[in-house]
Amino acid sequence: MSFLNLEEKVGELRGKLKKAYNELLFKHGPQGWWPFVEDGEVIYHPNSYHFPKEKFEVFIGAILTQNTSWKNVEKALINLYEENLLNAEEIIKTPPQKLEDLIKSSGYYRVKAKKLKEAANFYLSLKAPPSRQALLSVWGIGKETADSILLYAYNKPFFIVDTYARRFLSSLNLIEGKEPYDRIRALVEASLEKDFRIYNEFHALIVEEMKRRVKK
DNA sequence: TTCCAGGCAATAC
DNA sequence: GTATTGCATGGA
Question: Which range marks the domain in which residue A189 is found?
Answer without folding.
Answer: 1-30+160-216
